[in-house]
Write the structure tokens for this entry.
Amino acid sequence: MNKENIIKATMLAAFLLLFLLGSRFQAEANKVVCLEEKCEKPHAHGELNFHEQFPVEHQDSFGVATVKSSANFWIANASGMTFALVIAGAGLSLVLSYKRIGSFLETRGLKGAALGSVIGMPLNMCANCSAVASVGINARSGSAESTLGVILGGALFNFIGIATMFTLFDPAVVVSRIVFSLMMILIVVPLVSKTIVSRQQSVLNDKVANAISCYFPEKTFLQTMVKAFEDWLILTGNLAIKLLPLMFLGTVLVALFRVLFPNEVLEEIGHYNPLLVIVIISFIGTFLSIPVLFEILLGTVLLQLGFSNGAIAAMLFTAPSYGIFTMVLTREKLGGYKVPIILIATTFLFGIGTGLLADFLTPYL
């Protein structure tokens, strides 16, 4: 590992620590306060964030409601997505100059999905921000398994989130979520990745990648530091140019769905057949794209409304998993819409399975 790679690895670690210590852990602590019903503004909890800047009112027209929801979604994810781009640029810069890491991210099958999820877990990001980081880091040649593993590992195995769930919900709910999360990463991801015909879906311009990957050993330490910073800046800018339009498109699609299916829908289906309730909750959760830990708030809403453990478990699995926003971000990397649509359909079906398993386990746990 040469000095350029050491500098780039240090930059990546520094950006991640800055994100976790300066933003993420504090934000998660504030959200846990809300989840424990100690929030100073409990009535300000919205559709797409814990405290929304632009509350959607009943009298708002469809267009106004969509604009407000888009703004709320963007505000909720602004910090995480900004850091995701910064971390993605640093990670991709290291991948391009240190070939061993590039080979590591190209791992296929179950091992690739598992390794990707291990990388995603410490990011402490929701699926939206994880998608930005993962597509960026794997932009050159990372495998589909690695890309999806990072996204789902970060979204479904947030340790703070899981620990909080155990304090708020029946153990059957959390165990069911963990079981189907493992199945999603270790079984579904490797299987659907095999259906991708093209094995080289480079999201990054080849000229940019080739320029970054060049190493000039005769440079001094200071010159190498400057080059490492330049590489990061160039890659972050290129990724932003490539991904920001997709991020805006994903934001609008999420907002449209949320306007069509607001929280009031949940209050109207409580008396339905229990199985039908799980199906409806799984459908709604699948098409949500939420900030980190927001699925727990939705779960507490269902708990307060008297829903079964099955319905709560279905929401806790589907809402943070693969959804509309991640589909838009990963479509090119995954070779088109085929795999993303399969993943969304699987999320829906696994949501139903999670709910049924939770109801089954409830008497025993």
